[in-house]
Design goal:
Strand order of the largest sheet of chain A: 5-1-6
Oligomer: heterodimer
Radius of gyration of chain B: 20 Å
Strand order of the largest sheet of chain B: 6-5-4-3-2-1-7-8-9
Shape of chain A: globular
Distance between the termini of chain B: 53 Å
Structural class of chain B: alpha/beta
Shape of chain B: globular
Structural class of chain A: alpha+beta
Number of strands of chain B: 9
Largest interface: A-B, 33 and 35 residues
Largest sheet of chain A: 3 strands, antiparallel
Order of helices and strands of chain B: HEHEHEHEHHEHEHEEEHHHH
Strand content of chain B: 5-15%
Strand content of chain A: 25-35%
Radius of gyration of chain A: 13 Å
Number of strands of chain A: 6
Largest sheet of chain B: 9 strands, mixed
Chain lengths: 90, 400
């Protein structure tokens, strides 16, 4: 499965955090530093494996240690409507 | 690794908006979330909210307009809309200049961009600016008189997913009262039709009700109108002196007596209750900390209501002005004790502490506006169930 952030959503990175605004629901989401980094990576479409590998490298951890967290994060972003369907997604 | 997604609750939740401008992005019930962000911007001094005045030109000629005296004619006025020309001082920002500053705002931390005027819909730059804001992932709010919201325009605005909403100014419950203030016959109908049209396209619309002498008898009816049509609304009781220094707008101000009558009648549910302590932390507004404004000629202000120029984006970048302007540094360093009339005032908890009104009335950011002071006193008197020190001559119909 391939993930990408919704390119139409206003957002701003403030120091380590990122604010994402959804004008459709008028909700404001505050992403912590890790979620903000994933949001940044999701500017282009990425798979779970790709995100896991990147974050494991950046956090100096094993992919196994971060994979569940990334999955949880992606599920949260998707549930909140902040991701778009990417053509060719499994 | 941290938990994946932190929700809004991690931010401070106990604060009300520091000024009405902070609430401009919200609909009823959303205040808490936006207030949390405003507190974060305040504490970190991030210009999260910036108003950008696209033009001073306007197609109506409101008697209370804070920009300049729109009835002034002659050499002071350059080319502009026939109904309301803009004074010919320096030229208004070009689209190229606006695009440049939008990039600078994005880099400085701005997320919420309010587009104002004049009338924003009369600016040829509006749609290119909306396009650029979308590219920059800025959330946009517009302030408009609504009269130019024709079907094609409303549909086009609705196509912008980054458009949070449009605030539309209404000055009466009846066309006679509203049109007498705008000095344009038919404007009330066009404003409300525009508001309905925009909402029908799915855009969040909020009406902004400015209370003044010619419409004070209709305040209850104005609120009823909003309720009947299902529009959220914001009431503003303070008309300020104009940014061009003329005082004519002040004739539109309601009197203390009228304010007392409103608080005992159709606005009785809106009296400040004075329960919130106004300490060193709560006293300042978001001016120059989370808020800034850019005039149509590039001046950078601490807030759209306070025309105290901290610099001009034609001479410096916005980021440079934001970080190092002596004006902004002065505002950020103020303590309650620096406000000589406010510091000892017993009515602080009932006061709007409207810095724009104070600045325009006194010429000093730390000064006062007698109307605002009187309003705090009236609110306190009514809230404490004392007879205010004013007579109440009005029989205001509380059509709520």
């Amino acid at each position: 499965m391939t993930y990408q952030r919704d390119p139409g959503l206003p957002f701003q990175k403030l120091e380590e955090e990122t604010i994402v605004v959804d004008p459709r629901t008028r909700e404001v989401h505050l992403l912590n530093d890790t979620a903000a980094r994933v949001w940044e990576l999701l500017a282009s479409s990425s798979t779970l494996d790709e995100l896991t590998e990147t974050l494991a490298d950046e956090y100096d951890a094993t992919p196994e240690a971060v994979r569940a967290g990334v999955e949880e994060l992606l599920a949260g972003l998707r549930d909140k409507g902040l991701l778009v369907d990417v053509a060719g997604a499994a | 690794m941290d938990s994946a997604l932190r929700a809004d609750s991690a931010l401070r939740v106990d604060s009300a908006p520091r000024c009405q401008d902070d609430a401009i992005l919200t609909r009823s019930g959303d205040h808490a979330v936006v207030s949390q962000l405003q507190s974060m911007a305040y504490e970190r001094m991030i210009p999260l909210n910036v108003s950008l005045e696209l033009t001073l030109k306007c197609n109506i000629r409101c008697l209370h307009c804070y920009n300049f005296d729109r009835d002034t004619a002659g050499p002071a006025c350059g080319p502009g809309d026939a109904a309301s020309p803009a004074p010919a001082l320096s030229p208004e920002l070009s689209l190229e200049e606006i695009f440049r500053v939008m990039g600078e705002l994005r880099a400085a931390g701005t997320l919420f961009l309010s587009l104002t005027g004049g009338e924003v819909l009369s600016s040829p730059h509006l749609f290119p600016v909306l396009d650029r804001a979308r590219e920059l992932n800025l959330a946009v709010q517009m302030l408009s008189n609504g009269t130019l919201l024709r079907p094609g325009v409303a549909a086009r605005l609705a196509s912008y997913r980054n458009l949070l909403g449009v605030s539309i100014s209404v000055y009466g419950a009846t066309p006679e009262v509203h049109d007498a203030i705008t000095q344009i016959r038919g404007s009330w109908r066009r404003t409300l039709d525009g508001a309905e049209r925009l909402r029908a396209q799915g855009v969040a619309v909020r009406l902004k009700l400015i209370v003044m002498r010619p419409n004070v008898h209709e305040v209850g009816a104005m609120r009823a109108l909003c309720d009947a049509r299902g529009f959220p609304y914001l009431l503003d009781l303070t008309v300020t002196a104009r940014h061009d220094g003329t005082q004519g707008s002040l004739a539109m101000r309601i009197t203390e007596r009228e304010l007392g009558a409103l608080y005992q009648g159709p606005l009785s549910d809106l009296i400040p209750n004075g329960s919130r302590a106004v300490d060193e932390a709560a006293f300042p507004c978001n001016c120059a900390r989370g808020n800034a404004a850019i005039s149509a000629r590039g001046e950078v202000f601490p807030c759209v209501s306070v025309p105290w120029a901290a610099g001009n984006i034609r001479q410096q970048s916005f980021g440079e002005i934001w970080r190092s302007s002596p004006v902004f540094e002065r505002i950020r360093g103020l303590k309650i004790a620096d406000y000589p009339a406010c510091a000892p005032c017993p009515d602080k908890s009932f006061c709007s502490r409207d810095r724009g009104a104070a600045y325009n009335a006194s010429g000093s950011y730390t000064g006062t506006d007698p109307f605002v002071c009187a309003a705090a006193g009236v609110a306190r008197a009514v809230a404490e169930n004392r007879a205010p020190d004013v007579q109440l001559p009005l029989a205001v119909a509380a059509a709520r």
